[in-house]
Fold:
Amino acid sequence: MQYYVAQSLDGYIADDRDGLDWLLSFGFEAFQASYDRFFAGVGAIVMGAATLRFLTASGEPWPYPDLPTWVLTHRPLPVIEGADLRPVADDPARVAAEARAAAGDRAVWVVGGGATAAQFADLGELDELLVTVMPVTLGRGARLLPTTGGPLAWRLEGSTVFENGAVELRYSRATD
Structure:
């Protein structure tokens, strides 16, 4: 499972109002080729309910057509044209197994948020972090990966520097 996300220099993925205006102000053009390469390898998606609400509030068409998408939620899900949504109230270990099976030889993308990704990291199910660090500080907001199981070790596999000052860091889970 891969957590592909952007963060501020001080480790936040959303501001203190759960907003992304700070991120959207950088535009998407500089990152399009990198995103397209990543997304071409995705076979299934996992996200939290807040991420789903953010996506549906945008008014844009569903961005992940034909990909099975597990949503961690305790509420009924909206019907979204082109979306294969699968609600799950608990048991992230089962979600990880089902999503991996559905993805086949492709990746499972943990879209967000940080608390959702942390659940999988705490279970040892998060294999890779692909974090684009944006040249901005927020001071507060939603943390990148608020794990509760203690320190997790990661190994840097590579990096990409973008013209706008952002840096993508690719980590794999370090094993003993």
Observations:
- The two ends are 19 Å apart (CA to CA).
- The chain has five helices and ten strands.
- The domain at 2-147+158-167 is CATH 3.40.430.10 (Dihydrofolate Reductase, subunit A).
- The CA atoms of residues 39 and 109 lie 9 Å apart.
